[in-house]
Amino acid sequence: MSYIGKKPTDVPLSSADLPDNIVTSAKIADDAVDSDQLASGAVDDAHLATGITSSKLSGALPALDASSLTNLDARDLENALPAISGASLTGVVGKIVQVVYTRDRLNVNGTTTMPIDDTEPQKTEGVSVPNLDTAITPTNSSNKLLILVSANVGQSATPGGSTMVALFQDTTTLALASGQSSHGGEGCMSNITFNHQITAGTTSATTFKIRIGYNGAGTTGINGVSSRIHGGASTSSVTIMEIAV
């Protein structure tokens, strides 16, 4: 640039010397401006265009804190979310790992007695109900097994005695638990329910079994006395839940 007289002192060009909007993106060479040329805090949310694609993001992103995700609208979530498996939840006490359920509506009956006294019922007493045999394979020997029993039991004898249901495991001689009901009269049915919890103690299959009986003469039956009642609507069941500890 030509001038008359003495050359003026050189002065650095500053942004204040440039009219607004005189420098457009078309006048800036590619990669001419990087993070070193930007003052700290110069670029905030207001200067960022919407719709920035992931291809524009490089380097490691900061860790996300879920507490910062508030009022998240499901419509803003795109694509399928990964499946969450309960098996991946470790150290969760009280989590139900699995449930096994057996339901029976058939009639089984017999005349073998089961005494009502201060001794544990034995596997030779009463009548076996094989249709309610329920097997479970625990995933952890330290977990708990909660067994729920519901049995509709009847008796042909006159009133005065007790109808009983006992729970056994595998070939164990003595019952784990039992329930009983006062007998109301010939042909009367009772719904006997009880539960029992044990430590699994194994990761192999184990089977829980039911026996029914009466403490006197007569026929004891499940889902009916000597034959099925209610067309099979009267049912009995065993439910086993494995619970993490």
Could you describe the 3D structure shown?
This protein is mostly beta strands and 245 residues long. The chain has a domain at 98-243: Jelly Rolls (Sandwich). It is 0% helix and 30% strand. The protein has strands at residues 96-104, 108-110, 127-128, 134-136, 144-155, 162-169, 177-182, 189-199, 206-214, 220-222, 236-243. Strands 1, 2, 5, 8, 10 and 11 form a six-stranded antiparallel β-sheet that branches. Strands 3, 4, 6, 7 and 9 form a five-stranded antiparallel β-sheet that branches. The protein is rod-shaped, with a radius of gyration of 39 Å.
Describe, in short, the structure shown.
With 245 residues, the protein is mainly beta. 0% of the residues lie in helices and 30% in strands.
Describe the main β-sheet briefly: 6 strands, antiparallel
Topology-level CATH name of the domain at 98-243: Jelly Rolls
How much of the residues is beta strand, in percent?
25-35%
Number of strands: 11
Shape: rod-shaped
The CA-CA distance between the termini, in Å, is 86 Å
Overall pLDDT level: 84
Work out the helix count: 0
* CATH architectural category of the domain at 98-243: Sandwich
Contiguous uncertain segments of 5+ residues: none
